[in-house]
Design a protein that fits this description.
Layout lengths: L2 H12 L3 H24 L4 H24 L4 H6 L1 H6 L5 H33 L6 H28 L3 H31 L9 H7 L3 H13 L13 H23 L5
Length: about 260
């Protein structure tokens, strides 16, 4: 079996999972549903509605992607089907990357449906979104789900049971949720100690966007503020995009390295 065949098999298995269908429904509701509702019950314009939903999505989507991906390997390992799969031609690497692609497709399709729902709902309210806003919002959501799906698969490949994978996924989500507050606390402590002034140094600004959701939000802001080619990389779309690329590639590679040497019992 090739990577593509494993991805298709994983998609078929996912289609029979009620839990993952709930994940998809959560993504669609949190994007298309909430933004459309906000447009009809408030006086906010479409761009303001999407800007408000950016924070909600940045908080919710990490756990969505982590939950969708954290059982990619461990669920089959717990059931014993992983050893059967590996008895066939595919290598461990093909299984891992096929699983990642399968789980990524699930969350990407959910994002696409949610964005289309937002666009249609806001247009129905008489204030259609401009293409730059749609593109920036879509890029932000895709950046979050692709990076955290990679983290989720890496966790799944690195631990022995689905219960442990769930625990690590919750821990990662908690850190992601608190990242902005932790960086803000560090800044306050450094200011009180007289180490930095009112303007945060570049290294602290970089630390602030080192977490995928923060990097994705930075892309959204920079894209709408004309940050395609600014003098300061911290105000561009390119630096946070590179951060997201690293979060998408590195975890799954680390997961591959761990999975290659794992004793499957």
């Amino acid at each position: 079996m090739s990577v593509g065949q494993i991805a298709r098999k994983d998609l078929a298995d996912t289609g029979r999972s009620r839990a993952l269908w709930l994940v998809v429904a959560g993504v669609v509701v949190s994007t298309g549903g909430l933004s459309t509702l906000a447009a009809f019950v408030t006086d906010l314009g479409s761009r303001e509605v999407i800007t408000q939903s950016v924070g909600v999505s940045a908080s919710l989507f990490p756990i969505v992607a982590l939950f969708a991906a954290k059982g990619a390997i461990t669920a089959e390992r717990d059931s014993g089907s992983l050893r059967t799969l590996l008895a066939l031609p595919p290598s461990r690497g093909e299984v891992l990357f096929g699983k990642y692609l399968g789980r990524l497709v699930v969350v990407v399709v959910a994002v696409a449906v949610g964005v289309v729902g937002s666009v249609v709902g806001l247009a129905a309210n008489g204030d259609p979104l401009g293409l730059p806003v749609v593109a920036a919002y879509t890029a932000m959501l895709l950046g979050i789900v692709s990076s955290y799906a990679s983290v989720g698969v890496a966790i799944s490949a690195s631990v022995s049971t689905d219960g442990r994978a769930t625990g690590f996924a919750v821990g990662v989500f908690t850190l992601a949720l608190l990242w902005g507050a932790l960086v803000g606390l560090l800044r306050s402590l450094l200011m009180q100690a007289g180490i930095i002034g009112d303007t945060p140094p570049e290294w602290l600004q970089l630390l602030g966007i080192a977490e995928p959701s923060q990097a994705a939000q930075a892309i959204y802001r920079a894209a709408l503020d004309g940050g395609l080619a600014p003098g300061n990389p911290l105000e561009s779309v390119w630096l946070p995009a590179l951060i997201l690329l690293a979060w998408t590639v590195v975890p799954v590679v680390v997961g591959y390295w761990r999975f290659q040497s794992a004793d499957l019992g």
